[in-house]
Design goal:
Number of strands: 10
Strand order of the largest sheet: 3-4-5-6-10-9-8-7
Radius of gyration: 21 Å
Largest sheet: 8 strands, antiparallel
Strand content: 25-35%
Helix content: 10-25%
Structural class: alpha+beta
Order of helices and strands: HEEHEHEEEHEEEEH
Length: 246
Amino acid sequence: MRLTIALVIGLAAVPATAQRAPITRLLDKVPSLLGSGPKQPSITMPATPVIVGLTKAADRTVASDPATYDLGGFRLGMSEAEAEAVAKGRGLTTRTVTRYVDFETQVRSAINMRGGAAGVPTKRGVLGEATLVDDAGGRYMLKTLVWPDGAHLSSIVYLAPQGTAAADWRRMLVEKWGRPREEQMGDTFTARWGGAGSGFRAAANVGSRGGTIEIAQPDGSRQQPGRLVEQAADAFIAARAKKPTL
């Protein structure tokens, strides 16, 4: 039972016994011929802000800060490559993958929709969502936001398998994340970490019948890269607009 618990929560290494598929497909790394031709107008892309938990993964866990928590080795803000490395290191099996268009494609599409001439969108793929399975029967569900430098994890949900008592879940999670700000113990362990300050949050609702554990970015985080897309499109159109003569 203890070995199973360690495998589920990611506190110990998991043997790579299951056949696994890569998160990133090789073809997605090859630039589109349509989107990389010499006639493409140059667009200045904004820099990705460096924010722990949004576009950068924390290098250690701070008990009072869910932005720094790890769940099975995954942390909020991880890049696609970092998430893929965790999956390979854990020996996780990839079940489903959804890919999103990259940031540059979003900018070029936004310009074209406004009547600008931004060329053909590149349509390169970046990680959008993925479902991964561990050897204990648990599932990790990952979601990302697309920033100028690529996709970064925005939500990590673990669907726990059956067989582990609520008290054991509580012990493991308190050891990993510290005491929750609110909790309730019964047939399941229900708890929340994080406060109203940063908006990052972690929650658990697990017991012998399974359940869920999750960490997520603040509400409204999804709007931040969207605003950068709009800013880049506005700047491109403004720079090329012909000034009227009155």
